[in-house]
């Protein structure tokens, strides 16, 4: 009997997976991607390694919808103080560490969308790693990117595609 119940639960989980797609443990599904948020702050390289350790990559954005998805998720994880600290945002995979001024996504996907804030990137004292600025009056302006010192420690988002 226990055996049958176990099998049934497994089947239910498998059917849910088939209809909705599956995310790994510690990831949450939004749209066609699975996201993992870490409130623990790391350098960009540390965050990049941590994502790879989960079989994932730092998040990449290819349109404003993906940017909004992650920003909304971040707001849901943080308290209202998110409006008060402009630098309290999260690493994304965009960087120009390999070649100054040539920004790429750490997951190797092509650059089809950028959302720089005015005046960015400015490579101020060698900034090569990108995070939303969390500044401005609307969610869209708060999602605007700035280049930061890669050694700054920030929370971060990893992602994997939803698997079917
Ligand atoms: Ca740079
Ligand atoms: Ca900058």
Automatic annotation (TrEMBL):
Pfam families: Lectin_C
Record flagged with keyword Signal: yes
Entry GO terms, CC: external side of plasma membrane
Record-annotated C-type lectin domain positions: 30-159
UniProt entry keywords in alphabetical sequence: Signal
Any Gene Ontology biological process: immune response
Protein name per UniProt: C-type lectin domain-containing protein
Source organism of this protein record: Strongylocentrotus purpuratus (Purple sea urchin)
């Amino acid at each position: 009997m226990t055996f049958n119940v176990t099998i049934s639960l497994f089947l239910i989980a498998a059917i849910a997976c088939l209809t909705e797609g599956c995310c790994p443990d510690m990831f949450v599904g939004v749209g066609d991607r699975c996201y993992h948020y870490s409130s623990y702050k790391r350098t960009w390289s540390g965050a990049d390694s941590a994502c790879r350790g989960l079989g994932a990559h730092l998040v990449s954005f290819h349109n404003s919808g993906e940017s909004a998805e992650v920003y909304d998720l971040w707001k849901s994880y943080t308290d209202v103080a998110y409006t008060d600290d402009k630098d309290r945002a999260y690493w994304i995979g965009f960087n120009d560490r390999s070649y100054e001024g040539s920004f790429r996504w750490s997951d190797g996907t092509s650059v089809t969308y950028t959302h720089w804030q005015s005046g960015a990137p400015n490579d101020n004292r060698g900034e090569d790693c990108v995070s939303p600025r969390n500044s401005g009056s609307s969610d869209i302006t708060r999602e605007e990117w700035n280049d930061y010192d890669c050694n700054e420690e920030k929370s971060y988002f990893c992602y994997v595609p939803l698997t079917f």
